[in-house]
Amino acid sequence: xxxxxxxxxxxxxxxxxxxxxxxxxxxxxxxxxxxxxxxxxxxxxxxxxxxxxxxxxxxxxxxxxxxxxxxxxxxxxxxxxxxxxxxxxxxxxxxxxxxxxxxxxxxxxxxxxxxxxxxxxxxxxxxxxxxxxxxxxxxxxxxxxxxxxxxxxxxxxxxxxxxxxxxxxxxxxxxxxxxxxxxxxxxxxxxxxxxxxxxxxxxxxxxxxxxxxxxxxxxxxxxxxxxxxxxxxxxxxxxxxxxxxxxxxxxxxxxxxxxxxxxxxxxxxxxxxxxxxxxxxxxxxxxxxxxxxxxxxx
Length: 298
Ligand SMILES: Cc1cc2nc3c(=O)[nH]c(=O)nc-3n(C[C@H](O)[C@H](O)[C@H](O)COP(=O)(O)OP(=O)(O)OC[C@H]3O[C@@H](n4cnc5c(N)ncnc54)[C@H](O)[C@@H]3O)c2cc1C
Prior knowledge:
The protein is of the alpha/beta class. The chain folds into two domains: 7-127 and 254-297, FAD/NAD(P)-binding domain; 130-251, FAD/NAD(P)-binding domain. It has six helices and 22 strands. The strands form seven sheets. The chain has a five-stranded mixed β-sheet with strand order 6-3-2-10-22, with helices on one face. Helix 1 packs parallel to helix 3 and helix 4 packs across helix 5. The longest helix is centred in the first third of the chain and has 12 residues, at 18-29. Bound molecules: flavin-adenine dinucleotide (FAD). The site of flavin-adenine dinucleotide (FAD) has 31 residues, from helix 1, strand 3 and helix 2.
């Protein structure tokens, strides 16, 4: 049961990705208290959700940093300003109150009141492109994963990877080199990924380190409580059952702007205009003039 009293703050930030987190720092310097809302269960946006172990090379002053470490550093940097978080909830509606403040309500009914709002929602909420297998929802997080957050969890396992792009190729190579038994399934014979990765996968396949099945698709999943096997259909007519611990359908992620699209913002190709060279986008009408430096700062 949600509290009757809304959470009150000076600056409400929608989106706790790197842009939203850094906005806390900048607002903190102006002595503004912040509260962040994010649909994901943890702060960090795409960096913690999609690629926490990937090195990033284009952060000024850091020659190389893992995405997850960058977020940890940002959390440390903003800790002195003690921001509040509403996580695992999607900001759904914004209503202007008589006193000029904004009331933001989430999909779970949590209400937030603030005189200023910063929208740092990136491209919105990322959702995986799922293959059309009727019972796939049943096995999600019980053997079926759409992203590899921590490769250590997949070491030394039997894994079926489906897809033909960079993500499928790179994880097939990495996991095969870290002791997993990989079966790679692709519906064509040509791959879309980087030529070097394609060559590596073909080499691993010809040397028997991974099993490569082309002109094929995973069409069925079974197991009791957890995934135990997948059905692979080859050339549309031949079925093969493969025992597996994990199925990774890596067909990419598509961003859904979600409720942000309904808030009357000036959007151009899913971006707020004007778009500065930064990733924080402010709802300009929502910012009191005295805090406009925030727009530049983040
Ligand atoms: C695989 C991959 C590798 C990348 N590598 C690099 C790199 O090396 N260098 C680089 O500079 N960039 C890289 N990027 C791009 C980088 O991740 C983005 O530019 C960055 O995440 C943008 O930060 P952000 O805070 O604006 O948005 P995001 O990180 O997208 O965070 C936005 C947050 O807003 C939340 N949100 C959206 N709508 C709502 C709502 N209505 N209610 C609640 N929460 C909401 C989302 O859940 C999300 O957590 C990469 C991206 C990917 C996918």
